[in-house]
Amino acid sequence: ADWPVILVNYHDANAYAKWLSKRLSRTVRLPSAEEWLYAASGGDNRKYPWGMAFDSSLCVMRESHGGRPSPVKVGSRSSDCSPFGIYDVAGTCCQWSSSPVKGLNGHYRIMGAAFNSLELMCRLDQELLGDENETFSHVGFRVVLELKEEDFISYD
Q: Which regions in the chain score pLDDT beneath 50?
């Protein structure tokens, strides 16, 4: 129950966002690849959520735990947290974005790294391409809740 949701295709992830939108009476959606990258890096072009140098102990990836790589509890590495407080962006689970791959119909950009990723994939600027109908053992999703004007505090 503590693992990320994985083994869902792009349509499953979108269906959940639509269901949650109706349940909350708010717009919930998958983030674009650009939104994901900005949120993961804090907007300062860092390579990893903790800075510029890689350290496998700071995220959940292939070399960060002994034995066969497997999913772990969400948020299990406090160091794998963006400046905006978003956990598991350099490991644990890759995520579908809403950004289609130009020139490749039915494919979307997949962001982040997973429990079975190699070091290169843990860089925030790396991405995978996924067929919208495929499921992968290391790919899940996260959603964005769109804010309304009344969600902001006015100091007038």
A: none
